[in-house]
Each structure stands twice: as C-alpha cells, then as structure tokens.
Amino acid sequence: MRPKGTDQQLAARRDRALALLRAGKRPIDVAAAVGVTDRTIRRWRTEARHPKRRGPKGLRPRLTAVQVGRLERELKRGAFAHGYAGDFWTLDRIGQLIWQLFAVRYHPSGVWHVLRR
C-alpha cells in the first residue's frame, strides 16, 4: 500500500533518511527517525548508490516493428499494386499508404524517418 503523503513529502522523507545515513547513522536508527522499516532504508540506500536506468527519452514510435515490417512488404509489391500510375514511390505516396494500412498520418519528412528505421 502507498504510504500517506504527497510525492514531495515522501521524497523529502527519503532525502532526509539518506542524509542521516551519510551522516553515519545506522539504518535501524534512521528507520526509527523517519518512520519506516530498516529494510526500506536499506533499499533506499541501494537505489541511491545504483540508480536505475530510465527508458529511452522521447515519444514512442507511432508504428510498431510489426507494422513497419508489413509496410516494407507492401512497398516491395510496388506502387502499381496500390493503384498508382507510375511504379515509383514518393514520400507522399508512402505517407498515404501508411494512412490506408494503419490509420496513422505522417508528414513526408516523418515518412523518411520511418523508412530509415
């Protein structure tokens, strides 16, 4: 269960506990001072020493890897197979194909980035 308090209050309690540990206090004494178990203090100390890597920054791609694979197969079929007069692909045409297949809109420059994946 989540402890009582706002995110800021809980972060302040954790910071206070870490400061007490850095000052040389024993985990059991710090736990009593901030109102948590000594196991929690040990976990906070470990997390402070070895912070977890965060995930990649930025937005997630709008097309999944499976969808990109399907797009590649459709592009290999050629533009004629999709009703275009010339058998060549432009970024605009590929953007229209992405919309038809997946209902996801891309600006032509965004289509270029999808193709580079």
From TrEMBL:
Task: Please list the residue ranges annotated as the Winged helix-turn helix domain.
Answer: 87-117
Task: Please state what the protein is called.
Answer: Putative transposase
Q: Which residues form a coiled coil?
A: none
